[in-house]
Design a protein that fits this description.
By secondary structure, this protein is α+β, with helices and mostly antiparallel strands. The protein is 28% helix and 28% strand. The protein has 4 helices and 5 strands; from the N terminus they run ββαααβββα.
Length: 127
């Protein structure tokens, strides 16, 4: 038997670190997409490249300079993260959902909501 006695916990997001109460950490529920994240990302990347391309319209043009390829790399209750690959390195950009997901069945509607935001945005082609 293994026992984890958590004395402190910290969460770092985009270079900002926040302390997390150990009791709150222990009581936290898993992300509703955690079990299916890898399959969902592979499906989006391999079967829906046009969706990924449309989502790029939500990224500021300056971030797409010299981008050779865009790949979905993370998916959670808060949004999708796209990796912008360049010859000089990579950059990750999060596209946030309007509200956190409570169930995986809500994912399609949230992706559609992001895609609706792209209407009227100019096409931003990645090489």
């Amino acid at each position: 038997m293994a026992l984890l006695d958590l004395a402190t916990a910290e969460l770092t997001v985009e270079g900002r670190t926040t302390s997390v109460d150990p009791d709150a950490f222990a009581a936290a529920r898993p992300d509703p997409l955690a079990a299916a994240e890898a399959d969902l990302l592979c499906h989006l990347d391999h079967h829906h490249p046009q969706t990924v391309e449309r989502l790029c319209r939500l990224i500021p043009t300056r971030h797409l300079q010299d981008v050779r390829q865009v790949r979905p790399v993370r998916l959670d209750r808060h949004g999708v993260v796209l990796r912008l690959e360049t010859a000089g390195g990579d950059r990750d950009v999060r596209l946030s959902f309007g509200a956190p997901l409570r169930h995986p069945d809500q994912l399609g509607a949230q992706i559609e909501a992001l895609l609706r935001q792209t209407h009227g945005c100019r096409t931003r082609r990645v090489r």
